[in-house]
## 1
Amino acid sequence: MAADSRRVTAFAPGRVNLIGEHTDYNDGLALPFAIERGITVTAETSGDEEIDVLSELLGERDRFPSTAPSPGTGWRAFARGVVGELLALGVALPGCRVRISNDLPAGAGLSSSAALTAALTLALLALAGEPELERIALARLCSRVENDWLGAQTGLLDQLASLFALPGCALRIDFATLTVEPVPLAVEGWTLAVADSGAPRALAASGYNDRRRECREAQAALGLSSLREATAEDPERLPGPLARRVRHVIEENHRVDRTVAALRAGDLAAVARLLDDSHASLRELYECSVPPVERTMAALRSAGAAGARMMGGGFGGSVLALFPPGAPPPPPPEALAVAPGAAASVLLRTPTSPSPH
Ligand code: GLA
């Protein structure tokens, strides 16, 4: 074996967003936390000039030159994008074999894409013998992969949640300043659970992009540099749909800080009410719920949830529910796939830095 042969591994977690939806791309506030499930990437030098990637989940491979990846489609776009972005930063990558192990359901709104880009980037930087990038820069790189190599217009919520995760904490992220403040998440006998609505994903990307466009239009009409600056009177100056979007953003930012205060006070009943309010706003003002999500909400409520809300980009995805002590989430029936062990107390985990083996 060559003297510089190396093997590294990196893990990046998926995330649950406790509250603060459709606020990241409006310079607002959100309160995500990392879950125990995530993506593990191992990489080892191969001695040639190719990158050979295996997705264990799909049983599929991809091969491309380590010095000039062309764009790919589907899952293949991730490694090609990460390599392309690292090369653009001047990181020279050795030929290598990369293996992706996935412990996160894709498309369930638990941020498998951000976990994959984060784990690939951490592993490949370590393999190249480079120091880790500063985490905000790392999050931006991962976001460029999704925007430019996959064509997904996401904000920075998922990447920051995965890269800044701390045990036992949610993260209050202020997207105007990109500051991340840990907030202890002690649920004291309550249980947070996630259920996949099973809604088809077909409309999710176009619906999400429509909402982003509406926010840009509202911001321009109000003459603001972001909707973070909008005041409670601003919606009155806008036509109906744009007024509703802006009201959601203003009130959702307030709900994030009210949730932080409720967590600090140990008032989980108040957190549950805030989840319900967030959902009502996403349904009525942001208009991004769909019937399968509403059915999942109803199923979780009748199973005893004290509060629940849809999570992520909307038009499908997962529902987050908070169950009080003595009312544990039901075992997952077909239509209510509660993520195994989805209790905040056992789900929190720090992403491990890649460690050479
Ligand atoms: C998706 C995006 C995030 C964020 C949420 C909505 O999960 O990836 O950047 O915009 O939707 O809060």
## 2
Amino acid sequence: MTRRMDMRKKIIIVGGVAGGASAAARLRRLDEECEIILLEKGPYVSFANCGLPYYIGGVIEDRDQLFVQTAERMMQRFAMDIRVRHEVLQVLPEKKSVVIFDHQNQVQYEETYDSLVLSPGSKPLQPAIKGLTESQNIFTVWTVPDVDQIKAYLDKYKSQHAVVIGGGFIGLEMAENFHHLGLKVTIIEMAEQVMAPLDYEMAMLVHHHLLSKDVQLYLNNAVQFFEPIQNKNKTKIHLQSGSVLEGDIIVLCIGVKPNTDFLKESGIDLNVRGGIKVNKHMETSVPDIYAVGDAVEVTDFITKMPAMIPLAGPANKQGRIVANQIMGRTEAYEGTQGTSIVKVFNQTVATTGANEKTLKQYQIPYSISLTESNSHANYYPGATPMIMKLLFSPKDGKILGAQIVGEDGVDKRIDVIATALRWGATVEDLEQLELAYAPPYGAAKDPVNMAGYVANNIYKGDVIPAFYHEIQDLDPVKTLILDIREKDERNLGYIIGSLHIPLGQLRQKINQLPRNKEIIIYCRSGARSYLACLILMQNEFENVRNLLGGYEFYQVINKTKKELRGTIH
Ligand code: FAD
């Protein structure tokens, strides 16, 4: 339905990619009459920035595929005035106008608006590290011109060793794509783990996978300074730990900051990071000015705290909400839950909602379940395991967050949980979900159902979980660790000091177990040990816990810790 306005409304949009293009298209769909001017400082609108790493890696071969829309096509289809290479330098709310610099013609001019939509996005952080600007082989990955430069550099200098600084999702995508091109890859990360949305133990699964692909990892390690090596197209990277490595090509992926310098004098409220403050309707503190995307401060859906979460989905949704709002359809943005997914070589890593670190920070009570399930029926070829960590409220069982690492089927499971979380579902609701099943696709008890069963057992107190990190500090006088796996499994490795009684013999040998000690039981993944817990509890053992994730998870973390110690200097 077209909503006609009394007057022809003039709307200026700053930024022509995710949020801006989305708002523009929706505005036109809602109102055939309004005047839409889209100002974009770069050379392209509506390009697929999320595809840039894959273009560098050659997975996306055709550069044209990066352009979801060209300015010409968009102008034709949506009858709007698109001005690329036009940068907004200032917003003047008292005059309801913006000051624009036309880079093409090198002229400055002013344009008035009835409504102004700000979607200027963010830009990669480039700290003032010595040697950064002097090195010709250090790049960021943000725009099409950025990747054009990287590709040209790779072609010209036939780089052998890529160093990725920053282990966030863009850094990991770059690592994979450099590797795909045959380069040796090193990742340097200041934190103790890559992928900040994951909790440490889940990130260890990613470290393990990266190491298995011969990616060198320098964790807990920041760059101190760069030293370009003259005439060798290389740069020495000096780390705070004292290590020095040489990179042929270096990409900086250490985070972003909002593109809001041009708003500093505008009177629009910004937060300390420069993020634009908006209400639920994406209205800024200044009338008739709206803002969306990476540049805005949103409300975290779980913690209800202000947050900056730069993701394409929220930017697009907010763009649509703003268009609706401008056209008189009141709509609210209820917050960002940070649902995200990344491919790391053969692994898929996905998260939604809050992680344990965040819940701790805001003192939100939580319980944890950890499950290993196969991507589809075990007996159908090609099933691969996925590890799912679920965080939920011990008060009412509501889902607070999830993290999944696996090879296959991770995407649909995270989306199911993200949807459940958005509608306030509990762990019991996850048990009840009826999900599509046939052997090639899933299991009659889907990994999401399984996570629900296990979490609900914990929620109801049917079983008490133990965690991998507790094991090393246990006092053997107070706690017995019980391995209930089969002999051949134990022969391949076990937790030092654990007593071995295979599950099949547990009932017969139950009297060998001490009643005055806590007993932590483990199997390979946590499923059989749950059964063993129930046997002991029903035989009136009072202090019994199940090791979440089992031996498999415990030993991957420990093995990876050792490997990392071996690689870090
Ligand atoms: P953008 O889409 O960045 O658009 C902002 C535009 O505003 C820019 O083109 C900029 O040139 C322009 N601009 C800025 N200031 C001015 C000014 N003063 N005047 C005129 N124009 C201006 N998100 C995901 O959810 N999943 C992914 O897989 C994913 N992968 C990514 C991979 C890469 C390499 C990158 C760079 C980003 C990725 N993102 C991903 C993030 C996602 O692209 C952003 O969250 C999203 O584009 C933000 O939308 P936006 O409209 O706020 O900003």
